[in-house]
Task: inverse folding
């Protein structure tokens, strides 16, 4: 049984995240979607909200679970016996940071591999912060997040001009 972890802040989940998790679920037996506390970012959604939105967005994908993690990815991967971390790469701009994270995780947990999936062309521009900016200005987020969570995101962030 091959378990992998898709880590992130998911603040909130976007169609780009859903694409990466779905593709990871097709390649591996079990995918743990892990919502991490990123100390360098101030989230707009609470941990519980981010988990609930992810669960709704991924409802059709059977071999996944969504968890919140307080701590190090390398340690969590050991605990869960995960063989790899799966990450999406959008553009050259993601590369340097992801390379650094991957090498750090390898130092902390030498058995842990990092697998990069290239973003689909239509989601290359898409990020959680873009979704937040558009939603806060009451823009149309139809092309950015799954339909089933539009309402919640707009309600939470809309009209904050
Ligand atoms: P972080 O706070 O760690 O940057 P994010 O929640 O922004 O986490 O992203 C989690 C993962 O999803 C990262 O690997 C990121 O590269 C990937 N990702 C984010 N947006 C997209 C997208 N539009 N297409 C492909 N991968 C994406």
Result:
């Amino acid at each position: 049984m091959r378990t992998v972890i898709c880590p992130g802040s998911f603040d909130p989940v976007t169609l780009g995240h859903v694409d990466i998790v779905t593709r990871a679920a097709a390649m591996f037996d079990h995918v743990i979607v892990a919502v991490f506390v990123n100390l360098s970012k101030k989230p707009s959604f609470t941990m519980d909200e981010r988990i609930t939105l992810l669960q709704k967005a991924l409802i059709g994908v059977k071999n996944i679970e969504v968890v919140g993690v307080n701590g190090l990815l390398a340690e969590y991967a050991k605990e869960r016996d995960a063989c790899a971390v799966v990450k999406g790469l959008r553009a050259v701009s993601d590369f340097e940071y992801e390379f650094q994270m991957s090498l750090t995780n390898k130092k902390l947990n030498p058995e842990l591999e990092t697998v990069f999936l290239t973003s689909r062309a239509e989601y290359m521009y898409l990020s959680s912060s873009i979704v937040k900016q558009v939603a806060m200005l009451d823009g149309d987020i139809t092309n950015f997040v799954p339909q089933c969570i539009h309402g919640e995101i707009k309600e939470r962030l809309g009209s904050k001009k």
In short: Helices lie at 15-27, 47-57, 73-79, 92-108, 128-136, 150-157. The mean pLDDT is 94.
